[in-house]
Design a protein that fits this description.
Residues 1-153 form the N-acetyltransferase domain. Keywords: Transferase. This is Acetyltransferase (GNAT) domain-containing protein. The protein has 223 residues and is α+β, with helices and mostly antiparallel strands. It has one domain (3-222): 3-Layer(aba) Sandwich (Aminopeptidase). It has helices at residues 16-30, 39-47, 93-108, 121-130, 144-148, 156-161, 176-179, 186-222, and strands at 3-7, 51-56, 61-71, 76-84, 113-118, 133-135, 170-174. A 7-stranded mixed beta sheet has the order 1-2-3-4-5-7-6, with helices on both faces. Helix 3 (93-108) links the parallel strand 4 and strand 5 (113-118). Helix 4 packs across helix 8 (186-222). The protein is globular, with a radius of gyration of 18 Å. It starts with a strand and ends with a helix. The relative contact order is 0.12.
Length: 223
């Protein structure tokens, strides 16, 4: 096994169908959504140099992938669609892909805010180590095209019921202005992660209360 990470291009077009398939399977298993993408969309990202792919050179096998999206006239950047093939999980490959696509984003869009939404604690930990902080959805892009991508998620009703202010996902933001010339020690990372987890716990409790109130209101209306 020899995994090579690189910026994807046209030579990787043949992997697009498998990437979409693995993304969809992972979303079904988690019960939450990576927005569904078609192979044509994935190939376009490869052609634009806005994707990172991991290839097992022993057999040219697809191992992992992530791509870059831009919103609000490139003021906001999202590292989307992180996926690792089941055969290559548990090796730390997801973190390596995240770091590479993050660095690619910083190079291509040095002044943009980088954000994401996820239910995965593993992704949150990686993002926290890279300087992301948890935020409310109001601090993320308000570009309608981004939020439209949530429609394929089974939890979309929660998002709309909350007027797009909250959902099961946690919002995360990296602001280059906050990180400029800021050196981060291992202790700083641990402290930031503790604060991150506390935010997530409070967010989950708040959402549980809101969901319960909504269900009670719906039940009362139907009585």
């Amino acid at each position: 096994m020899n995994i090579r990470l690189s910026v994807a291009d046209s030579q990787h077009f043949s992997h697009a169908e498998e990437i979409c398939k693995i993304m969809e399977e992972a979303a079904k298993q988690r019960g939450t959504g990576i927005a569904k993408r078609k192979p044509e969309y994935i190939r376009a990202k490869m052609e634009e140099g806005k994707a990172v792919i991991a290839i097992d050179t022993e057999g040219n096998k697809f191992a992992g992938f992530s791509y870059i999206e831009s919103w609000d006239n490139k003021k906001y950047i999202a590292n989307s669609g992180l996926i690792v093939h089941p055969h290559y999980r548990g090796m730390g490959l997801g973190r390596k892909i995240k770091e590479k696509v993050f660095n690619l984003s910083r190079t291509n869009y040095p002044n943009a805010k980088i954000f994401g939404i996820t239910t995965s604690m593993a992704v949150m930990k990686i993002n926290s180590d890279m300087g992301y902080r948890p935020v409310t959805f109001s601090e993320l892009t308000q570009d309608e095209a981004f939020w439209k991508g949530c429609q394929s998620c089974p939890n979309y009703d929660i998002l709309t019921n909350e007027n797009r202010k909250d959902c099961l996902c946690t919002g995360m933001l990296y602001d280059p202005k906050e990180q400029k010339e800021k050196k981060t020690s291992e202790k700083d990372k641990q402290t930031r992660w503790k604060k991150f987890k506390r935010f997530v716990r409070l967010h989950q409790r708040h959402l549980q209360r809101k969901t319960k109130q909504f269900l009670n209101l719906t039940t009362s209306k139907n009585d």
